[in-house]
Amino acid sequence: MRRFLEAGRLNSPRGIKGEIRFECWCDSIEFLSGVKYLYLDPAGKRPLEVKSFRETVSTVIFVGYEDRNSVSALTGRTVYFDREEIPLPDGVYYNDDLIGCKVFDETTGNEIGTLKRIEEGMASDIYYISGEKEYIIPKVEQFIVSEDPESGIIVRLIDGFES
Fold this sequence. Notes:
CATH superfamily of the largest domain: RimM
Structural class: mainly beta
Distance between the termini: 29 Å
Strand content: 35-45%
Shape: elongated
Number of domains: 2
Helix content: under 10%
Largest sheet: 6 strands, antiparallel
Number of strands: 12
Oligomer: single chain
CATH class of the largest domain: Mainly Beta
Number of helices: 2
Strand order of the largest sheet: 3-4-5-2-1-6
């Protein structure tokens, strides 16, 4: 498991006080509200101390970047958060931890493939599974029976999931 996960992308400066527009790739910017640092690299070696987030316009201000000129150097950068700063409830996992998991058919118990990617959909996330056949399955209770990075994902298949 990777310790540092993608949080989003820093876009253009906003105003003159160092705010930078933030394209959040997490559930919401509120999810990140408790983090003290965002990182410029996936190894967590280049920290940016978060001064504040603003959810209403999705911006962030970093300590030491409190003016438009200095923060403009961060434009276009992907930033990462430390998973250890955001504990998840039991049974909830980061998508990053599920990608690559084996996927099993609930009825037969047979492995049907591996979770290759997860896409955010309007109503739910969409799981893309590759094996002998390709499957596209919405992440909803009626089709995703269980998921665990250790033991894999169990799905309830119906006609139409094969692509």
